[in-house]
Amino acid sequence: xxxxxxxxxxxxxxxxxxxxxxxxxxxxxxxxxxxxxxxxxxxxxxxxxxxxxxxxxxxxxxxxxxxxxxxxxxxxxxxxxxxxxxxxxxxxxxxxxxxxxxxxxxxxxxxxxxxxxxxxxxxxxxxxxxxxxxxxxxxxxxxxxxxxxxxxxxxxxxxxxxxxxxxxxxxxxxxxxxxxxxxxxxxxxxxxxxxxxxxxxxxxxxxxxxxxxxxxxxxxxxxxxxxxxxxxxxxxxxxxxxxxxxxxxxxxxxxxxxxxxxxxxxxxxxxxxxxxxxxxxxxxxxxxxxxxxxxxxxxxxxxxxxxxxxxxxxxxxxxxxxxxxxxxxxxxxxxxxxxxxxxxxxxxxxxxxxxxxxxxxxxxxxxxxxxxxxxxxxxxxxxxxxxxxxxxxxxxxxxxxxxxx
Length: 405
Ligand code: ADP
Ligand code: ASP
Ligand code: MG
Prior knowledge:
This protein is an alpha/beta fold. It has a domain at 3-174: Carbamate kinase (3-Layer(aba) Sandwich). It is built from 13 helices and 20 strands. The strands form five sheets. It has an eight-stranded mixed sheet with strand order 3-6-2-1-9-11-12-10, with helices on both faces. Strands 13-18-20-19 form a four-stranded antiparallel sheet, with helices on both faces. Strands 15-16-14-17 form a four-stranded antiparallel sheet, with helices on one face. A hairpin with an 8-residue loop joins strand 4 (103-104) and strand 5 (113-115). Helix 6 (153-163) packs parallel to helix 8 (213-221), helix 10 packs antiparallel against helix 11 (314-328) and helix 12 crosses helix 13. The longest helix has 16 residues, at 16-31. The protein is globular. The two termini are 40 Å apart. The mean pLDDT is 96. Residues 9, 151, 154, 209 line the site of magnesium ion.
């Protein structure tokens, strides 16, 4: 008998009728002779509602108590789904993370799973029950509730699939699979039949929220094929899997946009050894992720440094830079939140030249100014003005002929 892990996202469990739809689907899977573990997210909008609520009582709601709060969303859906399955004559049992010892580190709101005790789930499955598990949450060694970062139920599902040695891991969502770009931005976007772990990892970390980055990392590490499918139809979906020869033929697999970064420019810095370290070290020590960095060519011994940080960390990063400013004797510090990072991703870039040129030419022809550039072997990212993001994605999608035939 094979074991299947299915994850249903927020929209898929967004109202009572949709929860009953999921109940029917998992019962059908069980009837086909599989053992079924279902991971669910909170009902759509619920995690945002809880986070908003927290800001009504506290200026900066972070840490342990925020996780106690947001983890409640998933508790509601596991209970509702289990009740719906039982109502349809099936057997189901719900589990919160602590009941399965989904052990994480103690980084509240971005915890990482370390281990899962699969005993209880195997017991329930062997009794013919469907195991319904709360996604997004874990428990740290001290017994505190933790959460895995936004979109974290994807990671719960993959981690469970690894721990249970599942035969299949399926992520059900509100789109039919992974598309060449977000179909909400570009209606011409085309569904991909398959995509490599490496490409999906880049797309996820560069803004495509269809899968949480960490879930792809885990799937790649344990070589688990990850299916992305719609919870509203029976289409084939997309499989995220190991790279093959066909994938290399495609130069650009997908395009992403990320609107969640902000840019900081530090002007008139002395162009001397050690200055960058003194600027970036305290930022790193405060756990702030710096993404792109550009340093201008020095003029008269002075230079400008521009870098991006997550918007959520902008305030803190600015405080740090202002503090360092006096010590390192820099000029003005400027911040810009109205930026977008647009990226093109594809393993085919390794063996095809001229991709960057075509990207820049396409943007230039539309009068879109590139503020920053960064590249890796399989991706090119540019920072542009936020109001032009949608247009840029659509133009690049066209230029690289990614649309439907
Ligand atoms: P869930 O609640 O099921 O986890 P998410 O909202 O987290 O769903 O992710 C699904 C959404 O991801 C889609 O509705 C789509 O707008 C967005 N998305 C972004 N990029 C892509 C892409 N390349 N392919 C498919 N969906 C994408
Ligand atoms: N409910 C959580 C969120 O909204 C986790 C998830 O949906 O995967 O981020
Ligand atoms: Mg999601």
